[in-house]
Design goal:
Length: 565
């Protein structure tokens, strides 16, 4: 049934008529209302509006906003502008919210993002309008409609907030331009990395360290070793110089607490752009980089881990391995093979997050424990194969001096200061051979395409199930299941998790008996790239953020009920 559009005055009268009625009567004002220069859509008011926020949207014609056309003329610029508006709205919403009433009565909010600059659907640019999606805790008092505050909210506070955020003249144009140009330059560098033979780039002056949800300054500004220094001529900022990490095998070494893992974490999150002022705006990584770590207890379903773990008995089928509770070594092998299955050009490893035998078996260990007694194959043997046969680079933190034998680049980090010691490492290899024997020379085959069984991806919701969210970790809720993705470190916020939950539902819809997981995910990504995040849901909620195919696959691979052939 189509909701009849009404005017601002109609909304005002409807609110006044509800004074002191039970707050559930707020539901009668849902609909579309025309204001002077925008349209307000009240999409959803819950049965208990005093406990659950209501969902609203506002559409303002672009001609009314006075935004210059070139702000939205490329995808990169549009995403940055939308992010800027959403963050500005979030900052201003606190000031425009009502303080009267119980609890959060009169509170206005919008989906708040992390320091990564992801495409979201909180602000959407249409052909001729800007739409903002937000939520409101409707004013109530003792369970009844608070007419006075509701009129204040709808007639003054919300219009004032929208004008503050959507009228170009009310925004800091210089700050907006800086955000747009920064995002555009970051995208330019990321696109240029492969043609420059690089896996990652860290601009001079970057800030690497993250504590909680904030970036803190390093002991010294980041500076590239001169041997690795490269320069990009960007469309807006012109020349930006910094460290280019070449494709191939790069080893990061140094003492404890000197910045090795911090640098790797910054590179790991360099698959995303960052907001202006963050300090990591120009730490840029190839978009398909995947961080690999041990993840004891994760679910593994029909993954070929045989390149890394040899079968010891008929009870252990390494070619088609499944388990509800993976061991540390099995989890690492599965994480690598699943990354290869979806597609990657860069793998990231930190020795603090690796199984010891995966990191490497030196000559002395090989002498005392023969290979036939050790089923796990070392990365020392596999990383060169991945590089030479499949063009897959790797960055390894720490590990051991044995990695000098296979490294193309070796960097030492001392109190966040970097030195390129590649030539010195090669000299050490010649003067101090380790005597280590290569234990596996077999080429790693690209994983066979697994096909999830369609019924195993069906979202199941039971009225009797306990749907309380587990605390302390990141989860993707899908049906009644909470998928633990807390060890998938390139998940960055809950908005991304919500989008991935809907992405799983779309994978379920496109799956059939012959569709591989990679192909199904590819179809979903194409649809989202073409239509936008709204393609994932039939409700315009403004609570989703963009994701990569790797994180969507990671969530599916960890589902407790997923079955694949």
């Amino acid at each position: 049934m189509e909701i009849k559009r009404k005017t601002q005055n109609d909304l005002n009268k409807a609110i006044i008529a509800l004074d002191r009625k039970p707050s559930r009567e707020y539901r009668t004002i849902a609909g579309t209302f025309s204001f002077d220069d925008f349209e307000l859509i009240i999409d959803y008011i819950p049965e208990n509006p005093e406990k659950t926020p209501s969902r609203l949207r506002a559409n303002m014609p672009l001609k009314n906003t006075k935004f210059p056309f070139d702000i939205f003329n490329t995808k990169s610029r549009e995403i940055a502008a939308r992010d800027f508006i959403a963050r500005h709205f979030a900052d201003k919403a606190e000031r425009y919210s009502l303080s009267a009433g119980s609890g959060k009565s009169g509170h206005i909010s919008i989906d708040r993002q992390s320091l990564e600059l992801l495409e979201t659907n909180a602000v959407v640019i249409g052909e001729d309008s800007i739409e903002v999606r937000f939520s409101v805790q409707l004013p109530e008092k003792f369970g009844n409609v608070n007419c006075k505050d509701a009129v204040e909210l709808f007639m003054k506070r919300i219009p004032g907030l929208l004008h503050d955020c959507l009228l170009f003249n009310n925004l800091d144009g210089e700050e907006l331009a800086n955000c747009i140009e920064t995002n555009e330059d970051a995208d330019f560098i990321r696109k240029a990395l492969p043609e420059r033979g690089l896996a990652a780039f860290v601009a001079d002056g970057s800030v690497l360290r993250l504590e909680g949800s904030r970036v803190v300054k390093d002991p010294a500004p980041f500076r590239s070793p001169k041997e690795l220094s490269v320069t990009f001529d960007c469309p807006n900022r012109g020349e930006i110089s910094g460290m280019g990490i070449p494709a191939g095998i790069t080893v990061l070494n140094g003492g404890f607490f000197q910045g090795k893992s911090t640098l790797l974490r910054a590179i790991e999150l360099g698959v995303y752009n960052h907001v202006c002022g963050d300090g990591r705006e120009f730490i840029i990584t190839v978009p398909d980089a995947v961080s690999i770590r041990s993840e004891e207890g994760r679910r593994v379903e029909n993954v070929d881990i045989s390149p890394f773990i040899a079968a010891k008995s008929r009870q252990f089928d390494a070619d088609h391995y499944s388990t509800q509770e993976a061991s540390p070594a099995v989890s690492m092998a599965a994480n690598i093979m699943e990354a290869l299955e979806i597609g990657t050009s860069l793998l990231l490893f930190d020795d603090e997050e690796m199984v010891h035998t995966f990191a490497g078996r030196d000559a002395r260990m090989q002498a005392i424990v023969p290979k036939k007694s050790e089923p796990v194959s070392s990365l020392l043997d596999h990383l060169p194969v991945l590089r030479d046969k499949h063009g897959i680079s790797s960055i390894v933190v720490g590990a051991s001096g044995d990695y000098f034998d296979i490294a193309d680049t070796v960097i030492v980090i001392d109190n966040y200061k970097l030195t390129d010691v590649t030539e010195q490492a090669k000299k050490i290899v010649k003067e101090h051979p380790t005597g280590r024997t290569v234990e596996s020379k077999n080429a790693i085959p690209m994983p066979r395409g697994r096909c999830p069984l369609n019924h195993s991806l069906e979202p199941v919701k039971s009225k009797n199930s306990d749907r309380s969210r587990p605390q302390g970790k990141r989860f993707v809720q899908y049906g009644d299941e909470f998928i633990d993705v807390s060890y998938v470190t390139q998940f960055v916020n809950q908005s991304q998790s919500r989008a991935i939950s809907r992405g799983i539902s779309m994978v379920y819809k496109v799956m059939d008996s012959s569709t591989s997981l990679k192909d199904a995910i590819s179809k979903v990504m194409v649809r989202v790239d073409t239509i936008g995040l709204d393609a994932l849901s039939n409700r315009l909620m403004g609570d989703m953020a963009s994701f990569r195919p790797h994180e969507l696959a990671a969530a599916i691979n960890r589902m407790r009920k997923m079955k694949a052939k």
